[in-house]
Amino acid sequence: MRYLAVILSLFLACVLANRSFGHYGPDGTVLFLNGFHFVSGRTSWRISANHYCVIVSDDLLQCAVYNTNTSPALLVGVEYIVSRKAFQSLPAEERQLWHSHAFEVTSGFLIQPQLPEPVDHTIMKDVLVDTYGKTFQTWRYDKQNSPVPLGIPELVMGYTADEQIVPDFVQSRDGLFGCNTTFIRESRQDIRPMEVLQGADSWKHGFVLTLGLVNETCETSFTSQNDTDASWWDFTIDWENIWHGGKRLLGARRRPRHKRVVGTRIKESWIYRYGANLEHRGVRYWLCKICHIKKSYSTALYASSGTAHAARHLLRQHQIAESGERISGLKTPFSLASGSTSSSFSPASQLPLQQQTNLGYQIGSHFDEESWKARFVDWIIVEDVTFRQASGERLRWLIANGGELASRLLPEHHTTICSWIRRSFESRRHIIAELVKNAKSSVHISFDLWTASNAFNYLGTVGHFVDQEGKKRDVLLGLPRIIGPHSGENIAYHVKEVIDQYELGSKLGYFMLDNAKSNDACLETLIRWFPMDVNRCRLRCIGHIINLVVRAVLFGSNVSKFEAELRVATDEFKFDIWAKKGAIGRLHNIATYIRRTDQRRQVLRRLQTELAGDDPIFTLEIVVDGKTRWNSIYMMIKRGEFCHV
Q1: Which of 232, 251, 271, 632 has the fewest CB neighbours in a 10 Å radius?
Q2: Which parts pass through the membrane (predicted)?
């Protein structure tokens, strides 16, 4: 923490002389920090921690952690913050208790409420970004509602990636302190942390460290060897649970390095930092340490004399590359399943689904991958889930971070989900209301009608303004359902409800709308409640204007007549009408003809494959233009050109 005393004394003495951190904290507090912790091994056990920090030396800060910065507050933990230099001097076993602050700083998760941005930026960049923290939660997360602190303190860690924490938790903190994590992150883009030292954030590598027997997460044995030695990653193997291909390998043992490389400068492969080299009946195996510690025995062992399979496993299952960096994003839901602590579903396959869910974390010895895949596919088919939804990042995050408590949280009725969504909407709406309230500019409005898949009609209403930080914002203010006719007067009543909800009457600016006559009538109705010069405030969408011009260029000046003829014509006569519109009309007819039957689409796919020869190709469907889809004619031409139509 270079220049720690100088920086804090220069900035904080003058800036914070008349500021209050709150009612708590030790004498001599020079920093007030708010950040996010989680109980080691349980990223879903989230904690918003308020730190009151004092300087012990140039290499050490000590912080009292409270649950709130207002009265009354509880002392819930303590954190020690050390410099990079001090962390480097720690032994290997000690380092596993510490977490890095690099991501917390650059992500905006770690904040200094009420400090001016230049001061905050300097302290984060020159003092905190390359520090490390060791934090103990003395008021346990699972006992937080008790009147007194119970149980043994918990070791807590810091987040190292966005997907590890839910956005609602961050937004709740932002609302409490009147800040915006996104803006803070943008202002810190120039902060470049040094590489995180080995041993910190050990939970990412399968080390879940706990205190005593009260915590039920898995234990880790320490070693005292130097951290530059690959054997520092050594671990205790449960020889009774060495599984491969559904069979237990009794008599497996560690395979020593070949005598020709022992004592030489030939380095051991990086995969052995995360696993062990085993041998059974003359066959070589690699045992994944992370899977083995998590008791995912069925996916922990690989038969291979090389390193490729192990490297692929570490990348796909645990997102660990050769450099040791964590690669964000999980490739498939199955990669999460194979690293799960769940047990085999086979013994309980005949039980009711709810009982199977509860037993998933209790039964048996190893995870049944095929059974899990089968149930996953059944879910996709029965619930009509799209492939993209089933492989989406948010679903993968829920599976990876749910843990044992997820089965208790899963709703059993759709109304529960509805109430969750409503509560989430209300909490976020309050954040938007604050943004709009503090806007530096007028709030300009755009709205348009939208039809959902259930044929319900909604009015999407968006506000455009410059916020108090000088940033241009485009936010969805409301999506009310339109009941009744799509007349200008009826639309105006729904727009008025949105404006009143955010108290925007005095801050209204321009209205950017398409050229429909109902929008003119809407503004004429709105002036009953909100005085405005309609001719000045009513702006017409340039996109609609350009679209009308282009259609006139393509189909002639009398486009309305052309479209009217299409509306009343039979399918046979529609071909004749389109044929008179030149090359684009003929292409439309060809595309329509091909798409009418699956047999014709099969012929198109076969022709694409034949033209590709030996080169692999993804076959593409022909595209037909649509009146309401802008650029659809362009997309039809591009696809037709690609498919040689």
Answers
A1: 251
A2: none
User: Rounded distance, CA 514 to CA 229, Å?
Assistant: 67
> Against a cut of 0.70, is the pTM above it?
no
Q: Which residues contact 344 (CB under 8 A, 6 or more apart)?
A: 363, 364, 365, 366, 367, 368, 371
Domain spans, the chain:
1-205, 243-258+268-318, 370-412, 424-540, 553-643
Q: What is each CA distance from 500 to 274, 434, 530, in whole angstroms?
A: 59, 14, 10
Give the CATH fold of the 424-540 domain: Nucleotidyltransferase; domain 5 (3.30.420)
198-255: pLDDT as tens digits: 889 887 766 666 554 433 333 333 333 333 333 434 678 888 889 887 788 888 888 7
Average pLDDT over residues 158-172: 88
pLDDT band at 18 (very low <50, low <70, confident <90, very high): very low
CA distance 307 to 376: 30
- What SS3 state is found at 33? strand
DSSP one-letter code for 139? S
- The answer to whether residue 332 scores a pLDDT higher than 60 is no
Look at residue 365 and tell me whether its pLDDT is greater than 70. Answer: no
Task: Give the Cα separation of 92 and 200 in Å (integer).
Answer: 9
Tell me 128's DSSP state.
Answer: I
CA 515 to chain centre: 38
| Contact by Cβ (8 Å): 497, 480 | yes
First to last CA, the chain: 66
Strands of 281-421, DSSP E: 283-288, 301-303
Positions of E strands within 232-274? 243-244, 247-248, 253-254
C-alpha span between 642 and 640 (Å, rounded):
5
* CB-based contact 212:152 (threshold 8 Å): yes
CA-to-CA dists, residue 623 to 204, 540, 583, 632, angstroms = 46, 30, 15, 8
| Cβ–Cβ under 8 Å, residues 566 and 538 | no
- Choose the weakest-confidence range: 83-92, 178-187, 258-267, 433-442: 258-267
Tokens 């195996």 belong to residue: 285
SS3 state at 188: coil
For 256-295, b where at least 16 C-beta lie within 10 A, e where not — what string? eeeeeeeeeeeeeebbbbbbbbbebeeeebbbbbbbbbbb
The DSSP 8-state label assigned to residue 325 in this structure reads P
Three-state DSSP state, 511: strand
Pairing of strands 275-280, 283-288: antiparallel
Candidates 565, 593, 562, 584; CA nearest to 637 is 584
Question: So what's the pLDDT on residue 337?
Answer: 40
Contact at 8 Å (CB) between 48 and 66?
Answer: no
pLDDT at 329: 47
Q: Vertex 401, ends 400 and 404: CA angle to 5°?
A: 105
Question: What was the pLDDT predicted at 267?
Answer: 67
Per-residue pLDDT at 347? 37
- The region that residue 441 occupies, defined by phi over 0 for left and psi between -120 and 50 for alpha, beta otherwise, is beta
pLDDT the model gives residue 166: 85
Mean pLDDT of 64-72: 85
How far is Cα 101 from Cα 194, in angstroms, rounded to an integer?
11
Q: Please state, rounded to an integer, the average pLDDT across all residues of the chain.
A: 79
